[in-house]
């Protein structure tokens, strides 16, 4: 049995952190669903930027949209929604079979809105309506300004993938924003069944402290933060507040492990997958990591028995002079800035391609 199947059977959802038109047209995504137990997909500006730069797969569609008077951001979202609709339709049988627990795809609002609450909410509603797929999450960053937009989007019935979460306090704030939105729906007599995941970025922690931590703590920080967040996740799921939501038909906001590709060339290429194998969570992994797991992964246990180690490891990092909460805040700021950079590069790529195609 492939490790991907073993992980799925253990109770964790495997999602692909990638989408390109080539993946769809070639049947590769369908094959990953059938052979690697992939049950969902995530996207972000960096992924789309690479997809547009590194292929001509979008050229015909861009030509057509230019004829229709589309340009810039509007043209990009047309392309992205076309891809994600196709992906959502591939995952729809899984979504239906699991009663909406699984089978999701994700589309992010413009990263330029990361600190604009009203703009984020308006974009989330508009993109969800335009995509017109019940199994499509709108990604909203868990920034200070994003949190009220998350609550309002959930209250409006828009499924949300909360992105750019790094620390345990950031995760808890996002989870509470989700629950507030659901509680307001219950009070208003609305259906409380609105899907959501909270995406905790893992590997960037280890990149941030590379060379600063003691050698014996190398590549342990991201996993320790994840263990701590998972313990808090289980506590929230077992809380009376959550149980009241479940009792009237609401669902849990699942914890999602993001940024799980190994960055250290001297470490295992499935380091974060094996360390974070746990039921009722999602791991969205890069294509290379998915292939590595299918090829030589070995799933031999799950995280709950090891979760108590997280605080011990974090204490050792603090003793080594690495201040976890401050670093988490810094990583969120840097993550938002990185997505803005990719977004601007993406729009430049669309503009240059548009000019080249017009000239041709």
Q: Work out the strand percent.
A: 5-15%
User: Mean pLDDT across all residues, rounded?
Assistant: 94
Number of strand segments: 8
- Give the strand order of the largest sheet, numbering strands 1, 2, ... along the chain: 2-1-8-7-6-5-4-3
Labels describing this entry:
360 residues, alpha/beta, eight-stranded parallel beta sheet, 57% helix, 11% strand
What layout of secondary structure does this protein have?
Blueprint: H1 3-10, E1 13-16, H2 21-25, H3 28-36, E2 38-41, H4 45-53, H5 59-67, H6 72-97, E3 105-108, H7 117-131, E4 136-141, H8 146-155, E5 160-165, H9 168-187, E6 196-201, H10 203-209, H11 221-237, H12 240-247, E7 254-258, H13 271-275, E8 281-285, H14 287-296, H15 309-319, H16 324-359
Parallel strand pairs: 1-2, 1-8, 3-4, 4-5, 5-6, 6-7, 7-8
Helix pairs in contact: 4-16, 5-16, 6-16, 7-8, 8-9, 9-11, 11-15
């Amino acid at each position: 049995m492939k490790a991907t199947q073993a992980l799925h059977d253990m109770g964790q959802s495997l999602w692909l952190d990638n989408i390109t038109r080539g993946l769809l047209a070639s049947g590769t995504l369908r094959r990953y669903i059938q052979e690697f137990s992939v049950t969902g997909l995530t996207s972000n500006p960096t992924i789309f930027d690479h997809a547009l730069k590194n292929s001509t797969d979008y050229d015909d569609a861009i030509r057509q949209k230019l004829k229709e008077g589309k340009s810039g951001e509007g043209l990009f979202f047309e392309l992205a929604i076309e891809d994600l609709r196709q992906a959502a339709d591939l995952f729809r049988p899984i979504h239906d079979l699991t009663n909406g627990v699984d089978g999701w795809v994700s589309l992010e609002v413009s990263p330029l809105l990361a600190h604009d609450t009203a703009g984020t909410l308006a974009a989330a509603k508009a993109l969800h309506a335009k995509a017109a797929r019940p199994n499509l999450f709108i990604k909203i960053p868990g920034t200070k300004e994003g949190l009220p937009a998350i609550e309002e989007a959930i209250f409006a019935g828009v499924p949300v993938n909360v992105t750019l979460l790094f620390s345990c306090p950031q995760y808890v704030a996002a989870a509470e924003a989700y629950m507030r939105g659901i509680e307001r729906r219950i009070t208003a007599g609305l259906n409380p069944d609105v899907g959501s995941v909270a995406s905790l970025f893992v590997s960037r922690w280890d990149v941030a402290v590379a060379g600063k931590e003691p050698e014996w703590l190398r590549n342990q920080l991201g996993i320790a933060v994840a263990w701590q967040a998972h313990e808090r996740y289980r506590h929230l799921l077992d809380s009376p507040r959550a149980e009241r939501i479940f009792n009237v038909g609401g669902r849990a906001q699942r914890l999602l492990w993001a940024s799980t590709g190994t960055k250290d060339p001297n470490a295992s290429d499935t380091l974060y997958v094996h360390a974070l194998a746990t039921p009722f969570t999602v791991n969205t992994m890069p294509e290379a990591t998915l292939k590595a797991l299918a090829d030589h992964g070995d799933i031999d246990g799950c995280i709950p028995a090891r979760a108590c180690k997280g605080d011990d490891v974090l204490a050792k990092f603090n003793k080594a002079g690495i201040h976890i909460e401050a670093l988490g805040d810094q990583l969120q700021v840097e993550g938002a800035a990185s997505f803005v950079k990719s977004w601007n590069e993406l729009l430049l790529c669309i503009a240059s391609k548009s000019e080249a195609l017009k000239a041709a």
